[in-house]
Fold:
Amino acid sequence: MNPLVYHFEAAHGLGKELLGGKGAGLSEMMHLGLPVPNGFIISTPACLDFLTHKTLPVQLWDEVLTHIGWLEQTSKKVFGGLQNPLLVSVRSGAKFSMPGMMDTLLNLGLNDQTTQALADETNNPRFAWDSYRRFIALYGDVVQGIPKHRFDHLMDRLKEERQASNDLDLNAFDLEQLTRRFKSLYLEQGDQFPEDPMVQLENAVRAVFASWNNRRAVTYRQLNSIPDNLGTAVTVQEMVFGNLGQTSGTGVGFTRDPNTGENKIFGEFLFQAQGEDVVAGIRTPEPLEALERRLPDVHSQLVETVRLLERHYQDMQDFEFTVEQGKLFLLQTRGAKRTSLAAAKVAIDLALEGLISRQQAIERFTPSMLEQVLHPRLISHHQATLLTKGLPASPGAVSGAVVFSSEAALEEAKYKKVLLVTTETSPEDIAGMNAAVGILTARGGMTSHAAVVARGMGKPAVVGAETMRVNPLEGWLQVGDTRVLAGEILTLDGASGQVFLGEVAVEASQASPELEQLLLWADAQRRLKIRANADTPKDATRARQFGAEGIGLCRTEHMFFGDQRLPWVRQMIMTQDIKKEQEALSHLLEMQRNDFQGIFLAMDDLPVTVRLLDPPLHEFLPVLETLAVEVALQQSKNEAPSQNQDVLARVRQLHETNPMMGLRGVRLLLTRPAILEMQVRAIAEAACDLQKKGKHPRPEIMIPLVGLTSELSQTRALIKKVLEQVFDEQKIELDIPIGTMIEIPRACLIADQLATQADFFSFGTNDLTQMTLGFSRDDAQGKFLSRYLEMGVLEDDPFATLDTAGVGQLVEQATQAGLKARADLKIGVCGEHGGDPASINYFHQLGLDYVSCSPFRIPIARLSAAHAALKK
Structure:
């Protein structure tokens, strides 16, 4: 039978899955010879067994008792002893970092007798009672389920009685009185506080195991795609005390700045405190420079130690440490949460420093991080009113309605963007923090819970805005004479720490040099080409700036909107007079030709796939219901017949019950060939004109909504005829490929036939998903799709991430059949899935040539394609 408990030295190399991240890190640090308090690890299989059977494994407690005895021998202390008592911490630690989501207990082993022994041993009664009151509050919260705020209320009341500004102003007698009040509160809940340290330990282990399934931990795993079947390990470790006098304290730090990635030690420290004080934001800590000023030798040792850790792990680390009477102890190390901007810089710098390869740098910077880098920022010339300023905990600028609780955030976020404003956040707020678009706290530092979690989520956050008072019960915050009520709008700037009244305009962020470098490295790794969906010269220019290698979808129907164009489009569609149709087409020809010239020029020497007209016609027509009401009102007033009546009759004639499957795409082009001729002529004439000017236009013509081989062959013949006419008129000839958009399931099934008539395929996965699943894109989201996702009927929104089991199989089948029929067939994707990382990985595996996405998603597509290529 495999053991369930391992002391730190024996655990070395057994891995995070067994030991949890915390335990593996402690074992590794001890192996490196770093100053780590001794202890042992209860492994994850014990947790999984407990969660299954609701009781501790039979063999577990014998092993725990053996290791407690071993820890007593190594520490020369006695667990529960009346002299030199051994106290321990009991901490959770899963394979993947889940900061603050599960439970921790400190100072375990204290009771009335051991507290007195600790006071005698250290000659410091204040320290002993401070440790005891902390333990009772933590134990009451974690094990007994007494809400933490009830203990906090007793502390606040005592501070008011003593006129103390913080807990450091309370003396030993005060803290002894507070401890008695804590024990009375505990008794009010129906039980005596347990005095037996072994009972305390067993209950603590049970509680930490059970915390794997508490609400905040489950929510965090859902948000971060962490499996539910891993369980947590438990580390039991000899206590070291940061609250033991003027030369003691506790701190949290990072080997590099987690906001910017700058290569300097970044962290915070509290003298006369224990670890939870820093991360909970109970007191605003000082920067690590305070430690350097007061204990320079300890600071130097800390810097040298954590630099060693970074070199050893080849990654930026965060670390927790305690200083006990001038002696340094490391309590944890793990890969650091960092902003996406910092992640890019750290990855680049580590590669340039030779610690990792360029490929590893790319793999460490994920597409989701890149999305966060592109957070908007406040426009530089805004004139907003500054309300307050705190610490810039997580970058990005955002506006939202103020809410004062996690519950309110969850409810209000269904209807609008909200900012979660609290005195400080706790792990219980994880769901509300996720629902909010930004986070603002009155207390806490750069390593507080709010700061760390917000950075991990990529949400703008400002913490430690100490001029702000928050009253969640009455629903207001106040700075000076200015009061802001729940529901009012504030704007956070997580890059500067500023908070403004009202909504402030934002602008797109600029890519950093590190990000540009990382994307260039990614380009060298990927095989998939990246094109853009762009319909205007402005969009085409922007797409090229983002790194597009062409346009994969130019939607010509998007060029027809606007006051100058829509009337001619309506005339073209609605008229039954050939002369009026030609009049409309001639105006549209000139407009289209100018549009195409601008787009081809912006994309000079890069391919531009122009999709011929493919709108449901109702998008260009007057609204039937509105028009009918207007005519009815005229008739009710006995007014003379108006032109509206004729328009209404024609709109009714053109009305379709299901316009998405009606007269559009290839059907419109074949039945109204004058529209096709106008568009093809505009494309060809624009390209010829640029060619004569020494430019290198590369248009491609795409026929939409094809489901029949005969549709494609006849439309292709019409296109070729117009091209030949233009080339003859212009005395120039260009190679303009003609392909089709694959967006109907039948097209996938006859792809081998279509390939004989097409120079390229482009999968329109939006419509292909819609028609394959039978889900209306317009209706599904509001009617049932979100509910399907909540219920687990669907794992992902199929319009955001490709349904590989269904739609993906059609894409794969069509790709294979098309290439078999025509080996030089170019194949791409131009639906929304072209910018989705998971879908891009699938398209890479299928061997497609390119994906096309909106201009702003091009950097994400570039990086995702590199990740796909680097996957083993």
In short: The chain has a mean pLDDT of 87. The two ends are 35 Å apart (CA to CA). The longest helix spans residues 578-602.
